[in-house]
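Troubleshooting log. The previous structure file for this entry was overwritten by mistake, so regenerating from the original sequence record. Sequence copied from the archived sheet and checked twice against the printout by T.R.
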Amino acid sequence: MLEGLISPPSRVLDLGCGNGRYLLPLSRKYDSVGTDVSVTAVYKARSYISKNNTQAECLVSSITSIPFSDNSFDAVLCLGVIQHLLEDERKLAINEIKKVMKNGAFLFIEVFGTEDMRYGGDEIEKNTFRRKNGIIYHYFTEYELASLLTGFDIIEMKDIVSEKKFHGTPHRRHQIRAIARL
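Regenerated output below.
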């Protein structure tokens, strides 16, 4: 994903790093930092990074209040995270992301699309649903994601549609991926 756009040892931030799935390969090439709102996830990411003999800073923080200095990162990954926020929080998160990015830095973002099989439920905002477990799911259109990324130069945006089978029945997965430059 970063190949050809970011050179080692660039500083990269993985927002919502979870258990370190993307942070581990990033840590092998870049000065990498991972954050997640979940203490458990950060613990797992630290353990995963350590077991694989590499280094990355991992800390607990919210995407709406990123604890780094302005102009700190050459690239930011935000994969499968921002769709779990309400509209005002999504705007705040993008402003926080812009703040920590260097001029010319890249943002790699992936969100759920409106054609996803999981779309629907208890709607609390347009295309935003709260599941029984309390987790928020927002489903984007390309237009909406582009609007959220105002101020960025969008280099690439594409719909990723795939089919997943559950109990033998096919279901549509829909994601939107974008690469943008500040």
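Strands lie at 11-15, 31-36, 57-60, 73-79, 101-112, 122-125, 128-130, 136-138, 153-166, 169-181. Archived copy saved in two places this time.
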